[in-house]
């Protein structure tokens, strides 16, 4: 695996892993905190009857009001400013005129581009009163994310992240989606390396100070298998079991990592008891 100083890297994904400097980390903090503030604000409006299109408009307006652009808008033909994935939708759910219902769980995935930096994060939001099985899935998924983050340190391998997530989630009788993964991020929306949410600690590229990437496990109550619908985007569980996802953007530091997308309002788990890891 090749590593390259980000300041000298070409503006495309070449397969090399970019190592960012302190100035880049500051740019990512600003972009990621804007995304986190938007996700915080959404906690006040997500309720039964809200259209996912209204969520999308809120995200677009929030970005515009703060000098940022939604990275998903017109990305590879995608026409919305966010993804809204409800119940058995694993990821990439397209906002529409369908209202949220009491008992739903919805993942809202936001990426803002601010001054050229991509701040990428998603959270789960319970809609009204949810069943205990759904609440437990949110708890397991969030804990899976935080265990993956805890494995990040220089000298470890990306497989350590996946092993931490898989070991915990499967011990809780849930499954880890294999079809999607985390990714490098920074000046590019999707960059190297891929961050798998399963695997073994001795596999994958070595983590080095200056790397920036997302960790975004998708955890199912049923089996891990998914299918993509005819729209080319929406991924759902094949067995229609509930799915959940939380996502943070992190940067590798000299002794661990910095979570750029932590909620400034302590709302990393909207609707659930707050703790920041």
UniProtKB/TrEMBL annotation:
GO-annotated biological processes: proteolysis
The record's EC number reads 3.4.11.18
What cofactor does its activity depend on? Answer: Co(2+); Zn(2+); Mn(2+); Fe(2+)
User: What does the UniProt keyword field contain?
Assistant: Aminopeptidase, Hydrolase, Metal-binding, Protease
Q: Which GO terms describe its cellular component?
A: cytosol
- Stored SUPFAM superfamilies: Creatinase/aminopeptidase
Which residues hold a divalent metal cation 2?
Answer: 120, 183, 216, 247
Q: Write down how the cofactor binds this protein.
A: Binds 2 divalent metal cations per subunit. Has a high-affinity and a low affinity metal-binding site. The true nature of the physiological cofactor is under debate. The enzyme is active with cobalt, zinc, manganese or divalent iron ions. Most likely, methionine aminopeptidases function as mononuclear Fe(2+)-metalloproteases under physiological conditions, and the catalytically relevant metal-binding site has been assigned to the histidine-containing high-affinity site.
Kindly list the positions annotated as binding a divalent metal cation 1: 109, 120, 247
The GO terms this record gives for MF are:
initiator methionyl aminopeptidase activity; metal ion binding; metalloaminopeptidase activity
Q: Which residues bind substrate?
A: 92, 190
Q: For the Peptidase M24 domain, which residue ranges apply?
A: 26-253
Q: Give the reaction(s) catalysed.
A: Release of N-terminal amino acids, preferentially methionine, from peptides and arylamides
What Gene3D superfamilies is this protein classified in? Creatinase/methionine aminopeptidase superfamily
Tell me, how does this one assemble?
Answer: Monomer.
The job of this chain, per UniProt, is described as: Removes the N-terminal methionine from nascent proteins. The N-terminal methionine is often cleaved when the second residue in the primary sequence is small and uncharged (Met-Ala-, Cys, Gly, Pro, Ser, Thr, or Val). Requires deformylation of the N(alpha)-formylated initiator methionine before it can be hydrolyzed.
Q: Which family does it belong to?
A: Belongs to the peptidase M24A family. Methionine aminopeptidase type 1 subfamily.
Q: What is this protein called?
A: Methionine aminopeptidase
Q: Which organism is it from?
A: Rhizobium esperanzae
| Designated gene of the protein | map
């Amino acid at each position: 695996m090749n590593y390259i100083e980000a300041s000298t890297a070409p503006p495309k994904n070449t397969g090399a892993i970019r190592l960012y400097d302190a100035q880049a980390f500051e740019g990512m903090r600003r972009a990621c905190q804007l995304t986190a503030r938007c996700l915080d604000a959404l906690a006040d409006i997500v309720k039964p009857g809200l259209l996912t299109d209204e969520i999308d408009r809120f995200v677009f307006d929030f970005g515009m009001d703060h000098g940022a652009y939604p990275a998903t808008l017109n990305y590879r033909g995608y026409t919305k400013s966010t993804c809204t994935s409800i119940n058995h939708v694993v990821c990439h759910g397209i906002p529409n005129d369908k209202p949220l219902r009491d008992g739903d769980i919805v993942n809202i995935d936001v990426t803002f581009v601010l001054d050229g930096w991509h701040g990428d994060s998603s959270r789960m939001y319970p809609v009204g009163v949810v069943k205990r099985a759904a609440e437990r899935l949110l708890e397991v998924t969030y804990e899976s994310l935080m265990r993956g983050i805890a494995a990040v340190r220089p000298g470890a391998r990306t497989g350590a992240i996946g092993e931490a997530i898989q070991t915990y989630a499967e011990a809780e009788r849930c499954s880890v989606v294999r079809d999607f993964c985390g990714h490098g991020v920074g000046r590019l929306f999707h960059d190297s390396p891929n961050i798998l949410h399963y695997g073994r600690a001795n596999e994958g590229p070595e983590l080095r100070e200056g790397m920036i990437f997302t960790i975004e496990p998708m955890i199912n109550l049923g089996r891990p298998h998914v299918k993509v619908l005819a729209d080319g985007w929406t991924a759902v569980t094949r067995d229609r079991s509930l799915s959940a996802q939380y996502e943070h953007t992190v940067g590798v530091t000299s002794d661990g990592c910095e979570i750029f997308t932590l909620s400034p309002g302590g709302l990393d788990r909207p609707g659930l008891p707050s703790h920041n890891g």
